[in-house]
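seq:
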Amino acid sequence: MEPVTEVKYSKNEAIIEALLFATGEKVTIDEMSVALKLTRKETEAVAQRLMSRYENRGGGVIMRKLTDGYILSTRPELHEDIRDYFELASMSALSRAAMETLSIIAYNQPVTRAGIEMVRGVNSDGVLAKLLERGLVCEKGRKDTPGRPMLYGTTELFLKSLGISDISELPPVEVMDPEKNEPDTTDKPTDTTNEAVDTVSSAAPVDLFDSADDTLPL
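struct:
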């Protein structure tokens, strides 16, 4: 048996690791700074060192950057190995309608309900309500147009579920602005709904919708 090399953590690294383990969710840099009694810049440096340690050790748990903080997460390469035991309740067995709506929001956010329905071609009130309830989608303010319709976008739970740190990490798809119903040259994506659904589904570590009947509502 090969000898085990002991990894010596600094006290600050150990504190951050303890925070992440104890909370089980994202801890922001500002929150870490309070515990460490360090500046934000100093705390960020400690967190980066700890994240490198997790990456280099090659274990089943990694430390991942998530917007303005960090979280402990399973290594993405192991998702297939553990999926039979663990299923992501918040994203499991979403219907095709839910996946369409979620994909449209992910690739076009912030987007209004009318923009979603323009792409899908059907009323999306019920599906949108369920996505809000599951915490995969949230309100992002109101659009500065007559009636000031609500804008929707994805949440950190969505990012965590797909194992990405930022929405920019989603694989690219063709571009279309659903609010204008015309091609757009910006980074906003597409009304090619099937492509967007397939992209989000393939990026996720578990099955995102029930392929046995993709017409059922949530």
